[in-house]
Amino acid sequence: MNDKTLAPEPRAVSARYARRDAAHDAQHYSLYASASALQAQHERLRAMRQLWRAHGWQSLAGLHITEAGCGTGGNLQDLLRLGADPARLHGLELLPERAQAARLRLPTTVAVLEGDALQAAIAPGSQQAVLAFTLFSSILDTDFRSALARQMWQWVAPGGGVLVYDFVVDNPRNPDVQGVPLAEVRRLFPHARITSRRLTLAPPLARRLPAPLLAPAAMLLPFARTHRLTWAVKTLNPSP
Fold first, then answer.
1. Spatial CB neighbours of 47, under 8 Å, sequence gap ≥ 6
2. Residues 125, 155 contacting (CB under 8 angstroms)
3. What number of other Cβ atoms are within 10 A of residue 173's Cβ?
4. What is the rounded CA–CA span in Å between residue 145 and residue 126?
5. What's the half-sphere exposure (Cβ side, CA atoms, 13 Å) at 15?
6. Across all residues in the chain, what is the average pLDDT?
7. Cα atoms found within 13 Å of the Cα of residue 115, Cβ hemisphere only
8. SS3 labels along the chain
9. From CA 2, how far away is CA 184, in angstroms rounded?
10. What distances in angstroms separate CA 40 from CA 22, 181, 182, 211, one per listed residue?
11. Which of 205, 200, 195 is nearest to 222 (CA)?
12. Which of 213, 209, 214, 140 has the alpha carbon at shortest distance from 171?
């Protein structure tokens, strides 16, 4: 999709990601190169598994799951490792080059859809889980953020939910992102039953620590955790 065909906020998000990709060191996010990135991923996967097992899901097999803003497919790969069925996974990605990278990484039965998520052909009530990982923090327009949250909520079947992973504080060095505290998640999903936990040792701190100290530091310094994983559940008798 050409940027000129996008609505103003998706077009702005595309420009923000382009600036971010140009400025950031890819090694910081490489699971092979960065011990802190690997530690954060392992912590997040454990938390996801715990949340979903507490929700009553003994397996991800048979569940329909969509990720909005799937990037190059890393989170979808993690879902496959946790037992999700590739034919029941969808990835939605705004940026063409990232969507193409996801298609190359993932099994061909995983559907990767390119373009504005508000226009995605996902049937209402068809998904057991919708993921938004570091997505809302990149959307600075409040109305568009709310519209996307409403759309995601419509995709979720009763008994399922939206899983939001995002940082909770503003980054003074990056005006292109905005923290998403728990109060904002509650505003975006006002009818949800919320379960949430703080995760992820502050990346600037984590990158300075030796690998053996990362897990203990994450446990002993809860005030230094900068992200939150929130499971927003649509109850079996949902409000409108």
1. 197, 199, 229
2. yes
3. 8
4. 21
5. 12
6. 92
7. 12
8. CCHHHCCHHHHHHHHHHHHHHHHCCHHHHCCCCCHHHHHHHHHHHHHHHHHHHHCCCCCCCCCCEEEECCCCCHHHHHHHHCCCCHHHEEEEECCHHHHHHHHHHCCCCCEEEECCHHHCCCCCCCEEEEEEECCHHHCCCHHHHHHHHHHHHHHEEEEEEEEEEEECCCCCCCCCCCCCCHHHHHHHCCCCEEEEEEEEECHHHHCCCCHHHHHHHHHHCHHHEEEEEEEEECCCCCCC
9. 31
10. 23, 19, 19, 12
11. 200
12. 140
Amino acid symbol at 33: A
Phi, psi (deg, nearest 5) at residue 113: -105, 135
What residues does 90 pair with on adjacent strands? Answer: 66, 111
pTM of the model: 0.93
- How far does CA 106 lie from the centroid of its chain? 17
Q: Where are the domains of the chain?
A: 3-233
Q: Which CATH superfamily is domain 3-233 in?
A: Vaccinia Virus protein VP39 (3.40.50.150)
Residues 138-177 have pLDDT tens digits of: 999 999 999 999 999 999 999 999 999 999 988 877 888 9
Place of tokens 């502050």: 202
- Per-residue pLDDT tens over the stretch 97-122: 999 999 999 999 999 999 999 999 99
